[in-house]
Design a protein that fits this description.
Elements: E1 2-4, H1 10-20, H2 26-31, E2 40-45, E3 60-67, E4 70-77, E5 80-87, E6 92-94, E7 98-103, E8 106-111, H3 114-117, H4 120-135
Antiparallel strand pairs: 1-5, 2-3, 2-8, 3-4, 4-5, 6-7, 7-8
């Protein structure tokens, strides 16, 4: 779900909390060594997300925030802010010349540069949280007779 979060609205906060959970507390953030990435350069997005990119030749930036049941990808376009809400069960990550996040028929690709490499620990933590979430819903193994 893609939301325009330029102005904080109570109903948007509730929608985000329902989908990916409430933000971590300060103590939890400290134990996890942070829950947000540094900003990264967006190199490409899916055609249905082109509206959130700068039209002029400015660099587009995005950052990721961990939540208990998913992530928030925050993208800035001029003076507007957009938040892409992705629950863990829809999240797919690819590491191809940077990183690519896919969900809900959309994708965002981050360039492989210094800002991306600074976020390696964050992506490791993100994958660990996704695995921990997926282990809760272990699929039964099929019995072949």
């Amino acid at each position: 779900m893609l939301l325009n979060t330029t102005h904080h609205e109570k109903d948007q906060k509730q929608i985000i909390a329902d989908i990916v959970g409430k933000p971590y507390s300060l103590v939890q953030k400290l134990r996890m060594n942070g829950v947000g990435s540094k900003r990264m350069i967006v190199s490409e997005v899916s055609p249905n997300m082109n509206m959130i990119l700068n039209v002029v030749s400015d660099i587009n930036y995005a950052s990721i925030e961990l939540r208990p049941k998913g992530i928030l990808v925050r993208i800035t376009k001029g003076h507007k802010n957009f938040t892409w809400v992705i629950p863990f069960y829809q999240l797919v990550l690819y590491k191809v010349n940077g990183a690519s996040i896919h969900a809900q028929g959309k994708f965002i690709h981050f360039a492989n540069n210094k800002t991306f490499r600074e976020n390696k620990r964050f992506f490791d933590r993100l994958l660990a949280e996704k695995v921990k979430y997926d282990e809760q819903y272990e699929m039964p193994t099929a019995l072949w007779i």
